[in-house]
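User: New here, please read:
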Amino acid sequence: MSQKDVEIAQRGWEHFLATGEPAWDALHAEVEARDHDIFDGREYRGHAGIQQWLFEDWASAWSEWSAGPAEFIDAGDQVIAVFQVKARGRGSGVELERQDAMVFKMRDGMTVRIDYYNSKQQALKAVGLEE
């Protein structure tokens, strides 16, 4: 992993926080994503899949949400982003505040896979860096 990949992931995260949109130019056209926090845990593929995951499936569960700045961890050919998320359930009104993490698998300066976990420990375990 190069520092360049960590910086690409960091810029993508900052872009998302600032605009609410992924940094599409940093996501491979055939990017894959899996949200391990969603009960059915299905795969999402391509830019259309990322759009469905973020703006339909994930966001539809929350009436409001926010995420904070992330800590980035170099994990070989992957980058872990650890961040605080706050959300309120759309139907239940239940408030949630926790530390979540995403693992970005990088290739040739592009994100080719995203795995979303609801803890830093799950992400570290997924990449073989258990704490």
